[in-house]
């Protein structure tokens, strides 16, 4: 394993029982992700993108093979250790934002820091800073229901980033957004990746996201069929406006 | 402090839903305490009235006396044992002689129980002083309001009384109703005629005899009462206690129903929370919250509903319960037929133990019904929870 490798999987297999049979969602995945990467898992629905993200996010266990994330072997982690890994090192961005509806924007972003036990003053400063990163400092007192889709996803990014995790795992983060909001979100994530060095791992089949990737891993039927370094091709201002 | 902080945020953030649950639960709190206070008030009144007007400090019964068997009353009398007679002379006890009889109001025959009591007694608070001045040619009698209503007799009315003396000879004489006492106690009223003790002894040819002896409140039962049986307050109040207990069962059903409704509201909220907030649970798990904390969070949310209900209930419940305890409730006339003494106006009785006990009971119940769906949540896999799926 390379020194700067944050994620390493070897012969990773994930099977689900369906009826009396086993469905293989991931089939012998070998993958290494280094610190600071901005990579995407692409492929059609059912190709295994979300399943792989779930395992890398310590939300699920592999059936066989190994997945090592920040030095922790996922299949050996108990419930508490997995929760600690997620709490301390991972940030999540979901397709449906998953903001807590009764909390304000500030409270939503503050939640990971509360779970980490960050002291009050530092917590306030970090939340304010995270909201400034995503340009929502003026909406701190709003509730999710008062936000647009783009704003909600920016809050979700702030929540994922607020504790400065090593890895952010994003499952179809732009699927519920229009083009303009998608570009805005992606620009924000690129900026955070460049400025903070946070590793981003996406699952997506959105061409808008794919244009921003620096590494693209294509999955099909649970297998990696392509793993390429790419040159980001973010849209011009005109394209974005359209 | 994380879990209490989040639980508080959640219930405050839930806004109207929280307050609806809190108000329903507080209503249950207040109603349960009120209902129990009502029954307690009934019990205390019935007990107090019985002690005051009928049983005082306990009774000694003739060995054959069984108030539930009218056929034994004829034989259930005897000379008062010396130990009890001494108490009577000292003014610490008063004897009562009981005999069957019949009266003929409006030409109809009606069986009655004759009770002879010393008009000067002060052991029980019956107005026996009204029997003091015996008139010529009639027997002065004291009856209760129920008896008066039942027979149509009123103060100053005469009625023929027939009885049988100890030798088995029937005799009859006019009885004059000298007073109608207002009492809520059916056991000294219903089908009973109180006359002076010595007069009844003469009528029955049973000098110095009695059926039972009432001890003054606080007088210890003496030794040497022969085969007369001492009946303490527990025994004498056992009927009313049993009756009140049955009322408690009825009331328990009522407040059980109230509590059930309130708990359904909480349970509904918590179960709905499982369904509606399972994605939220998944998010919390993804953010690194452990299962134990999630269970604690949901359980505490429920318990906080209970605590808030206590506070809200106290805000309107304390003045309301205080007012009901001071002003009382008028009882319908039919309440007098319940089998034990009930006043025209009942004053509920609340105690610290009642309030504390009810609060603890409701809090425990609320916490349990909050824990159950929370425990269900704990079995959710994070990936399923995030997809809003139940496993």
What key attributes describe this structure?
heterodimer; A: Rossmann fold; six-stranded mixed sheet; four-stranded antiparallel sheet; 8 helices; globular; B: about 400 residues; alpha+beta; 2 domains; nine-stranded mixed sheet; two-stranded antiparallel ribbon; 13 strands
Q: Can you summarize this structure?
A:
With 242 residues, chain A is of the alpha/beta class. Chain A has a single domain, classed as Rossmann fold, CATH 3.40.50. Classes of the chains: A alpha/beta (242), B alpha+beta (391).
Structural class of chain B: alpha+beta
Number of strands of chain A: 10
Per CATH, the architecture of chain A is 3-Layer(aba) Sandwich
- SS-based class of chain A: alpha/beta
The percentage helix of chain B is 40-55%
Protein topology:
The complex is a heterodimer of chains A (242) and B (391).
Chain A: E1 5-18, E2 21-34, E3 38-42, H1 49-56, E4 64-69, E5 72-73, H2 79-89, E6 90-93, H3 105-116, H4 120-133, H5 149-161, E7 167-171, H6 179-196, E8 199-204, H7 207-210, E9 215-220, E10 223-229, H8 237-241
Parallel strand pairs in A: 3-8, 3-9, 6-7, 7-8
Antiparallel strand pairs in A: 1-2, 1-4, 4-5, 9-10
Chain B: H1 2-13, H2 16-55, E1 59-61, E2 78-79, H3 82-89, E3 93-103, E4 110-117, E5 139-144, H4 145-151, E6 158-164, E7 170-181, E8 192-196, H5 197-204, E9 209-210, E10 212-215, E11 229-231, H6 233-236, H7 238-276, H8 278-286, H9 291-327, E12 329-330, E13 345-346, H10 352-378, H11 382-386
Helix pairs in contact in B: 1-9, 2-7, 2-9, 2-10, 7-8, 7-10, 9-10
Structure report:
The complex is a heterodimer of chains A (242) and B (391). Chain A is α/β, with parallel strands linked by helices. Chain A has one domain (37-59, 78-241): Rossmann fold (3-Layer(aba) Sandwich), CATH 3.40.50.300. In chain A, 35% of the residues lie in helices and 29% in strands. Chain A has eight helices and ten strands. A six-stranded mixed beta sheet of chain A has the order 6-7-8-3-9-10, with helices on both faces. Chain A starts with a strand and ends with a helix. The mean pLDDT of chain A is 90. Chain B is an alpha+beta fold and 391 residues long. Chain B has two domains: 2-51 and 240-386, no CATH class; 59-231, no CATH class. Chain B is built from eleven helices and 13 strands. The interface between A and B is medium-sized, with 28 and 25 residues.
